[in-house]
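Entry 12.
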Amino acid sequence: MDLKLVACDLDNTLMEGVPIEPEVREFMVEIREEGIKFVINSGRPLKDILDVLSDSKVPCSRGYPEAIISMHGAFIHYLKGKNYIEDEEWNKEKEKEMEILRQEIGWKSKLWEKIIEDKFKIKPLRKEIDQGVFRVLFNNEKEAEKVREAITRESNFKYTTFLRNKCFLIATLSTAQKGCSLLRVAQHFGIPPNEVLAIGDSHNDMDMLNGRYGFVPAAPSNADEEIKSLVKSKSGYVASLPEGKGVIEIVRSLMDSH
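Predicted 3D structure (tokens):
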């Protein structure tokens, strides 16, 4: 594979917890020296991602990550000098669509709360449910997936979709998932999709792992079983190691095969 860009999910993929392990951090430097761009593609807000990078001693002054995709693909920022500058056209469009999403959801988020507590008899660990907002942390992945499937069946929205990251379930923008956002970043850098490696571990990474956009998919060993099966079905790489060590294994293996 002629590898030009590595796009990596953050939680449970690049890292198990903050900070990013030193060997993973140095590996990011190593691949940059090989001329490979590194992009973080995370469900976290930009500020959280920048805090993780700061705590992990990954200063953008060293020239990486070259781009950050945040909020499950809703927002894109490119590294310019010592700062991350927004993809203004993309971000402004997605901000408008996020407002439509909130209108679509409206009071229905409270209805979904009743489904969780009354129909499924589930008590979430944490929830943020309000008009236009739906973010819930469940006790396990099985609970989260059961609820995701149920509310997906009874909802028919243009701008809203339901993504699960391990035990966390969120209503988010259907027009800006990780894959389509990564495609825009690749186009920004002039890199064809078949030279882009996408690495993720959970349901919310599917959009960049399912072959829709032509990226090479990969997953660490700790990824959800459905994700590992998906990656294998697309002739991708499933690492024998978890999290950051798995990312290193994947990239080195594909670099060595070139």
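Annotation: The mean pLDDT is 95. The two ends are 5 Å apart (CA to CA).
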